[in-house]
Write a structure and sequence with these properties.
Strand content: 25-35%
Mean pLDDT: 97
Distance between the termini: 44 Å
Helix content: 25-40%
Structural class: alpha/beta
CATH topology of the largest domain: Dihydrodipicolinate Reductase, domain 2
CATH architecture of the largest domain: 2-Layer Sandwich
Number of domains: 2
Length: 382
């Protein structure tokens, strides 16, 4: 089994999730590769203690990411840092010859993303992908196969979203995701939007134009000292886009919603596809359930409910009747990254991480959405 030695830059929530996924890699069966964490870096030394306590393979702990990038024992890097740091750290990682899985949105704005893309183009031997777990839930894998098999016929409409209620409390303390200088002008789109775009983009449903309505609902929040300070990022976003069905050439509406203030939602991903021959919808509110509507013209239209168990892109020891969860999703995403790195191709069309080109297109879409909000207009995605 091939071992890929990883360094982690940014040891917060998602860094620890990757650590957990790697520690139980034996959960997967039939894979020819495994990750091993050998180095970690965070500017806050307290964030690295969990790794030092739980990973005997760890040989380097640093507060300077450049020290990690200079470590010859590091083959690959996972980077989970605020958006304003993406351009310098991602580019330095690529120039150091380390394969990279970076968090979305791959740059705080389009200019930063352009710089990252130029760096990738200059180092074609380095494998680079963007993080998104959305398609690895079993119902989404099944829905992806329906797309591949052209089961929907001509596409009528697609709706995608990521909703949560984490900012519903106006007295919740501000953090970097609510500060323009760290999160960027995209607001919730930068933080949540790539998840909603992952499957539509992979399906070839590229937005051609967009009419956006962005909402800054809570304009002040307390800082860590309790003082009210400006909160200028967009809390919620609704994008109405025109996409084109690549099979029929016909246009159709694609809606994308990202919300940090969504009453009644904890952390909900959803996708709905409507076509002339079939429809399907999935929501992480009930993560094992795929609903399908299969019909012939003039026939009855009956929704069917399919409750799926542990049916994954990469097999494991869990019995097929048992439930799949978010930690499984993280591990599946990492298996997809390593599979493509190891074999030079993804396991399947929808068992793959976001490509740099897909991340770059999200910047084109989100930049157009900002223009749309400013001018109250429909903007071309260019």
């Amino acid at each position: 089994m091939k071992t890929y030695r990883f360094g982690i830059i940014g040891c917060g929530l998602m860094g620890r999730e990757f650590g957990s996924a790697s520690a139980r890699w034996c959960h997967l069966t039939g894979v020819e590769f495994r990750p091993e964490i050998v180095a970690v870096c965070d500017t806050n030394p307290a964030m690295t203690s969990w790794f030092a306590e739980n990973f005997p393979t760890l040989g380097q702990v640093s507060t300077d990411y450049r020290e990690l990038l200079g470590n010859p024992d590091v083959d690959c890097v996972y980077c989970a840092v605020p958006h304003n740091l993406h351009e310098p750290i991602y580019c330095d990682t690529i120039r150091a010859g380390k394969h990279l899985l970076g968090e979305k949105p791959f740059g705080i704005d389009r200019q930063a993303n352009d710089a990252i893309m130029d760096c990738i183009a200059g180092h074609p031997h380095v494998f680079v992908r963007c993080s998104s777990e959305f398609p690895f839930f079993p119902p989404m894998q099944r829905l992806g196969r329906m797309i591949e098999e052209r089961a929907f016929g001509q596409v009528i409409e697609v709706n995608a979203g990521f909703l949560h209620g984490s900012d519903l409390n106006p007295d919740k303390a501000i953090n970097w995701k609510r500060m323009v200088e760290y999160n960027g002008a995209y607001g919730c789109l930068g933080d949540l939007g790539m998840h909603t775009c992952h499957v539509p983009f992979r399906a070839g449903w590229w937005p051609k134009n967009v009419r956006a309505i962005l909402s800054n609902i809570v304009r002040e929040r307390p800082d860590r000292n309790g003082r009210r300070v400006p909160c200028a990022t967009w809390d919620n976003a609704a994008l109405l886009c025109e996409a084109v069905d690549p099979d029929s050439g016909a246009p159709f509406p694609l809606t994308i919603r990202t919300q940090r203030i969504a009453p009644g939602e904890t952390n909900t991903w959803y996708l709905e596809v409507k076509g002339m021959r079939a429809c399907a919808r999935w929501s992480s509110t009930n993560p094992r359930r795929l609903e399908r509507l299969l019909y012939e013209p003039g026939g009855e239209q009956l929704w069917e409910r399919l409750d799926m168990g542990w049916e994954t892109a990469f097999p494991g020891i869990t019995g097929a009747i048992f439930e799949f969860g978010f930690t499984d999703c993280i591990q599946q995403m990492w298996a997809a990254f390593l599979h493509e790195l190891h074999h030079g191709r993804p396991a399947s069309r929808f068992a793959a991480c976001v490509t740099p080109a897909e991340a770059a297109y999200s910047h084109r879409l989100f930049t157009a959405a900002l223009r749309s909000q400013e001018h109250g207009s429909t903007e071309t995605v260019s």
